[in-house]
Specification:
The structure is a homodimer.
Chain A (H helix, E strand, L loop, with lengths): L2 E3 L2 E3 L2 E3 L2 H10 L7 E5 L5 E8 L6 E8 L8 E6 L5 H14 L3 E6 L11 H13 L7 E2 L3 E2 H8 L5 E5 L10 E2 H6 L5 E6 L7 H9 L3 E4 L7 H15 L2
Parallel strand pairs in A: 1-4, 7-8, 7-13, 8-9, 8-10, 11-13, 11-14, 12-14
Antiparallel strand pairs in A: 2-3, 3-6, 4-5, 5-6
Chain lengths: 240, 240
């Protein structure tokens, strides 16, 4: 099943952007009268008929709109520190999108080697993974902020807030993410994953004071990007 | 924690191979008297002292041997069809190793575009992921065989045998991998994952006749390499 994306839906018509139009009319040779499926990135899938097959701007008439197409029953925010190697973070974003992540927040930790992060490529990768894994809703990509900024910002949220780090804080034993998710009180979930150098004790303390539950991701020492995917798959399987 | 690998343990001494010796003596500048940790790939971790710091062949004396170091309570075989793009398969092998896979079998399906597969690079990636994720046992890498050959070979095994495909076979409803793992009758688990074009109906039928349970990996359409990682993480979380 080939899916296109349009940010330009008006009434019972829609228009594909330049790249999608090229792919639709040039590569896949869709012609006037052909059926195509288009997502709006907001959660709706449109069954359409091509009415203009120009590679410069494909236009289609909407025959049927399916709201909340292939949606999942939770909202997962992954606040994961960028990895030294950018490919690894892009890979994490692609896979977490396939498992079903709703929001990506590149957070910069005190031990982060990478302090600057560009989100443009990430958005492209997420769009492609969204279409490939048959979803109609595009995950949000936030601009980078520091771990402490994000923790303070989310302190008031009544989401299930988890922070995964690898050390032990006094009197605050970590529980497994599986155990905490099983007893969750909300379907809004936030998971914080640190950089290669892990979170600082200060960041961990601030998170705990802000209502984050310290969790571990099992006995294996996982790379940052693997920890991010582990969190996404843990939620995915919890709701399976 | 930096871990080295040696296939050459004799009595209370061991020798590192050329690459590991270079890394140990040249890159990390370990000298006679320094402590190093070495795995044998069979499940044992050795706490050692360097007795010869030649980059051509580091030798160490074993102070303590820890058997079954960081071992997991199951044996997972992942028989996954190679992806068109080799990087994706190597990525799958790295991540599945982090989650804890014991055997990789590149199986060639009737719908596989890639019919030839070289295992050398995979072994390197798995060794590095094994050390990185703090494991002492190296996953086995089988030479490629066809899906049907592997199914016939495993027919007699009393492992929990799962096959993940995306279509529906008459009278054989697929259950979720989570549900089947929860009711498993063995800690020996085999998961078969097909190529981009999925398994053929014949392959699926043969698997079912050979004791494989058809499973799905949830509502998301996962790429082949993501399905492989999903299977590894499902088992990882089931035993968490």
């Amino acid at each position: 099943m080939e899916i296109f994306y349009s940010a330009d839906v008006y009434g019972n018509s829609l228009r594909l952007g330049p790249e999608e139009s090229q792919h639709c009319a040039k590569v896949l040779r869709k012609r006037v009268g052909d059926a195509i499926d288009v997502i709006d990135g907001e959660g709706t899938l449109y069954h359409c008929t091509v009415v203009n097959d120009s590679p410069k701007g494909v236009e289609a008439a909407v025959n049927e709109a399916v709201n909340n197409w292939n949606s999942h029953p939770y909202r997962l925010t992954l606040a994961v520190c960028p990895t030294k190697n950018n490919d690894r973070y892009e890979w994490f974003a692609e896979k977490a999108t396939e498992f079903g992540a709703d929001c990506f927040v590149p957070v910069i930790g005190e031990h982060s080697e990478r302090k600057v992060f560009k989100t443009d490529r990430l958005r492209k990768i997420i769009l492609s993974a969204t279409k490939q894994s048959l979803k109609a809703k595009l995950a949000q990509v936030r601009e980078p902020l520091t771990v402490k900024e994000f923790i303070k910002e989310s302190a008031a949220s009544d989401a299930v807030k988890l922070i995964a780090y690898c050390f032990e804080e006094e009197n605050v034993p970590r529980r497994s993410i599986k155990e905490v998710l099983a007893g969750r009180g909300s379907d809004e979930i936030i998971v914080l994953v640190g950089p290669e150098g892990d979170f600082s004790r200060e960041e961990a303390q601030l998170a705990i004071e802000s209502g984050y539950v310290p969790v571990h991701l099992g006995d294996s020492r996982l790379r940052t990007e693997t920890a991010g995917v582990a969190a996404a798959s843990a939620v995915y399987f919890e709701y399976m």
